[in-house]
Specification:
CATH class of the largest domain: Alpha Beta
Radius of gyration: 23 Å
Largest sheet: 7 strands, mixed
Number of helices: 11
Bound molecules: S-adenosyl-L-homocysteine
Shape: globular
Number of domains: 3
Distance between the termini: 69 Å
């Protein structure tokens, strides 16, 4: 299949050469973005910039990496100014190739029976608008690009073949789909309707409900941080703020914590934390159904002290406009949480706001630590696990920031 290349304006071309992946309709000087399809992208000098997905939505062009130009199509010099009609692969060939590469990079997560992990992470796997998570026998997709949506018939069989999944589910109840004029719905794409399954992470069983859980069912991105919490928790009293189904609290108890308190505003999430403790034969969990802001203030007022506090709030900055207010929220919460540390105590603090970069988050934490009657030591920086790779020139793909802070012993 050949199709006319899309060309970027001089300004957009400079950004593309610097690694920018997303472009808007007014960045284009030639070619149409409709219908949504895979195209070759060119810079203003007609040099090849690889493949891209087009869309009639807000983000008109999403680059998806290199793909060889054939000699026949491009004269003798692949990668330089090419013919007017440049080759693009058929969608089956394209998706099979990209998915195989992504799965090969995930190693055993693809096959271990009770594993949970991300198999495809959008741009970093050359598949903009596609997330694929695996939870034991269930595979969950999140689709936010029209090109991917139209290619599901090519994508699903490859995933079923590679994982042996009993169910493939689309969790498409996300706002981002509106920008692509795609309906927000969740549905079964293959197999039987599995409403709950169990994954094992760091030796702990976690129940995952693919149709109703947060994100695609579970916060897979915090796996490295949960390992760290398990490692640090021995003998400590632990406070897990914004706990959801208590994954951190359970990791702490499995690591030998004396007690763990899980705080969340969702009664249903806390019920599942309790069930999780029972399923793993862990004792010492208390759940508190409260607004976490109110709860930390109450804990401050009664001068409570903890050996380990986990602070993993939802994204406060959902857009660039909200960053200022979000900074205030993070600062207040972090200051309150730091005050609850016993000498030698740790705070594991997280931000999953795409619009707040690591230096900004570290500045907020610095401000939170200023004026406390003890120093605060930065022990470690973490992020999402290796199954959530990021394109370094596309900051949106690196959203999770995790810092391990400590109040020194004396
Ligand atoms: N730490 C969890 C993920 C936390 S997600 C894990 O690793 O699995 C954020 C959680 O914060 C959600 O469960 C949501 O119900 C809860 N939440 C949001 N706002 C809240 C508030 N003001 N007070 C308490 N919980 C809140």
């Amino acid at each position: 299949m050949t199709t006319r290349a899309l060309r970027l304006s001089p300004k957009a071309s400079r950004l593309a050469r610097a690694g920018r992946l997303w472009f808007y309709a007014d960045d284009l000087t030639a070619g149409d973005v409709t219908p949504a399809r895979i195209v070759r992208l060119q810079d203003d000098g007609k040099r090849d910039l690889g493949l891209a997905f087009t869309s009639a939505g807000r983000i008109a062009v999403r680059r998806c990496g290199a793909w060889p130009l054939t000699i026949a199509e491009n004269g003798s010099n692949a990668g330089t100014a090419g013919s007017r009609d440049a080759i693009v692969p058929g969608r089956e060939e394209f998706f099979a190739n990209r998915l195989q590469t992504a799965l090969a990079n995930r190693g055993e997560t693809v096959r271990i029976a009770d594993a949970g992990g991300r198999l495809v992470h959008g741009e970093a796997d050359g598949l903009p608008g596609l997330i694929v998570d695996r939870y034991a026998e269930v595979v969950v997709l999140q689709v936010t690009s029209a090109v991917v949506e139209a290619a599901l018939d090519a994508i699903v069989p490859v995933l079923v073949e590679a994982t042996g999944a009993a169910a493939v589910i689309a969790r498409n109840d996300v706002a981002a789909r509106r920008h692509e004029s795609l309906p927000a719905d969740s549905r079964l794409l293959h197999g039987r309707r599995v409403t709950a399954t169990t994954i094992v992470e760091h030796g702990l069983r976690h129940e995952v409900r693919p149709f109703e859980g947060h994100k695609t069912g579970f916060y897979l991105d915090q796996r490295p941080a949960r390992a760290l919490v398990k490692e640090l928790a021995r003998g400590r009293e632990v406070l897990d703020l914004f706990s959801y189904q208590g994954a951190f609290a359970l990791a702490a108890l499995a690591g030998g914590a004396r007690s763990a308190v899980a705080v969340d505003q969702s009664e249903a999430a806390l019920a599942r934390a309790e069930a999780g403790a029972a399923a793993n034969q862990l004792t010492g969990l208390t759940t508190v159904n409260a607004n976490a802001f109110d709860h930390v203030r109450a804990e401050r007022d009664r001068e409570a002290r903890y050996g380990l506090v986990v602070l993993d709030p939802p994204a406060f900055a959902k857009s660039r406009r909200e960053v200022r207010g979000a900074e205030r929220g993070y600062r207040d919460l972090n200051r309150l949480a730091l005050r609850l540390l016993a000498p030698g105590g740790y705070l594991l603090t997280c931000s999953c706001s795409h619009h707040m970069r690591l230096p900004q988050f570290e500045e907020v934490v610095r401000q939170a630590a200023a004026g406390l009657p003890f120093p605060v030591v930065l022990r470690r920086r973490l992020g999402a696990g290796d199954d959530h790779p990021a394109v370094v020139t596309h900051p949106e793909s690196e959203y999770l920031k995790v810092l391990l802070l400590q109040r020194p012993e004396s």
